[in-house]
Known about the structure:
This protein is α/β, with parallel strands linked by helices. It is built from 11 helices and 26 strands.
Amino acid sequence: MKASVLAHKDFTISKIDDRVYGAFLEHLGRAIYEGIYEPDHPTADANGMRGDVIKLVKDANVPVVRYPGGNFVSAYNWEDGIGPRGQRPVRLDLAWHTSESNAVGIHEFADWCASVGTEMMLAVNLGSRGVDEARNFLEYVNHPGGTYWSDLRIKNGRKEPWNVKLWCLGNEMDGPWQVGHKDAVEYGKLAANTARAMRMFDSSLELIVCGSSNADMPSYPDWERIVLEHTYEHVDYISLHMYFANRDDDTPTYLGLSEKLDTYIETVAATIKQVKAKKKSKKEVYISFDEWNVWYHSNKKDREILDGNSGWPHAPGLLEDIYNFEDVLMVGLILNTFIRRSDVVKIGCIAQLVNVIAPIMTEKGGPAWAQTIYYPYYFASLYGRGTALQLKTNSPSYETKHAKETAYIDVSGVHNEAEGTLTFFVVNRHPTEAIDVELSLQGFTAGEIIDHQVMTHGDLKAVNTAAKQQEVAPKRGSGASVANGMLSLKAAPYSYQMVRVKV
Ligand code: AHR
């Protein structure tokens, strides 16, 4: 089989916002406790943060991390997580049927972000709380001093304000599972009032209003329209969430889910335009895809705790999906979709970062390692920065319930002018056929291949574990070549690859 791709230097989609390669950390399961924070761990730093996890996060150059939830934020009192540790209250976490020690709060998280070199993206509680909590939290985090909340931050050990720019106005407020769930009008009004108050403090904040929890919600896509009608002039982004699953063990259909993702983005982008036109606004609103990942492997195991049959444990192993090779392909496809939609998707957060549906796993007192999906995320974050190219791809295709035609070869291309590189991320969805791919590089003076990494595996269900950390890992590719402005490569059946060319 053959596929062809045409890339032209002047045919671009958008400058990619680096923050599309962000991540998410929630007070959930072992994400915070035993994930990033384990004071007794042999690699722990002076703040009790695991050094091995810091290294894996740093390696992936994560630009922004959303915190503290998630469903957790909708009944969270941020004040519980400040002040001397010994005096912080233990609370019930209704979202995940667990207990929260509050040993980690905003100060510890901020210090950890500084250690890994990432920005904070904070969510305010618009479930059980509202405008008042949001304005106080903002003052605590961003005001230099001389007021009640800012002086309390200084007293608690942090002199300089953190100056956090990105703020989420609640989380998944359309979901009946959410503490303080609201209908679109109720939420739209609350979000608008909260945004107005936050902007009175600082008009340059970047605010994110909640879109639907997923594209199957009964209120979707009216939710987006109604919420934006209330908030359009006060916010910069609308959030989308989507989780991917292969419950029927039907790989071709599973890998076709990126078509559903694409339609989801297209529909919300159209809704944004509709509201913009209705409001006769000159302002743009973009998409923050602040929760995405594969999530289903752990569903059955988690029922016991989520149904309340285990009491209220602290930091139990929840949502610990162990990812396989097939999930590498899915994550590669999701990231390709974000690159191709970089004109509207400006922020993205892989959900989540450590232990909880995460690319990084840890063992208490033991090692931290990269799950299979770490690698496509890592490659996109490191090399998917620059300008997205509008590629013309011709590939044989197949039909799924998500789309009439799903190309076997899925590709995204990024030109980094400053570095003089062209990077392609290529997924072959074909179960049995290797596909020869010819990429015509027009308007570029293509030089040598500077990196070529390939992921394949004989077993779609192969996983990485503490004992076998490199079972599914990238290998240096061979056989790709550049001649006469043409990049040629072979994509093995069910494979992911990243190839970089000097231009
Ligand atoms: O990431 C896990 C959960 O998924 C989040 O808490 C919630 O926002 C979503 O439903």
